[in-house]
Specification:
- The protein is of the alpha/beta class.
- The chain is about 30% helix and about 30% strand.
- It is built from seven helices and nine strands, in the order ααβαβαββαβαββββα.
- The longest helix has 14 residues, at about 120-130.
Amino acid sequence: MSGYDALASSYDGLMADGAYRRRADFLERLFRKGGIPVHSVLDLACGTGTIACLLAERGYRVTATDGSEEMLTQAMAKASCLEGEPPLFLHQAMPRLRLIQPVDAAVSTLDSLNYLTRKQELQETFRRVYRWLKPGGQFIFDVNTPYKLRRMDGQMYMDETEESFCVWRTFFSERTKVCTYQVDLFQLRSNSAWERDFEEHRERAWEAGELQQYLAEA
């Protein structure tokens, strides 16, 4: 199993320390420094939609995309509790981005762009983000650095909640510049039995110079 098929339902509990409100505050500060007023926002690779929902709560018109149907299911359930206009969720891979209309700003948080492991995928994603940004709009994103991903080689991490237990094993390849996360997930089911799933995630270590080049080309 790959992607977030199994992890989606446990993701928010395991990421409880994600400091999402502080991230949303930081994004808003950057919005105010931009070249145009920000009213509409794209959340690219939105995951379970926490940032998208926080921005929607603050009055932004949010379009949120993700390549995982399971993550979007969690996101839409979360958005159903919002007051006001919820985000518009679209099932799209990053290099296949296609919106209804241009946006004032685009964001991508929690190292989503690292999941683009091929140069062509990253370049096409940047081209499409630029295409759907209004003139003067901002694209704000974060990535895991090569330094961080290299240091994760051969490491093991554990996260747990009352209903889930997750073990991450990580391996970095200097040849491909890809860090592979092998994830064993144990989830407590309604019959008091634990069910085990396995996923594999891959993140590419992109150098700052590469990102700058591809952004400039886009």
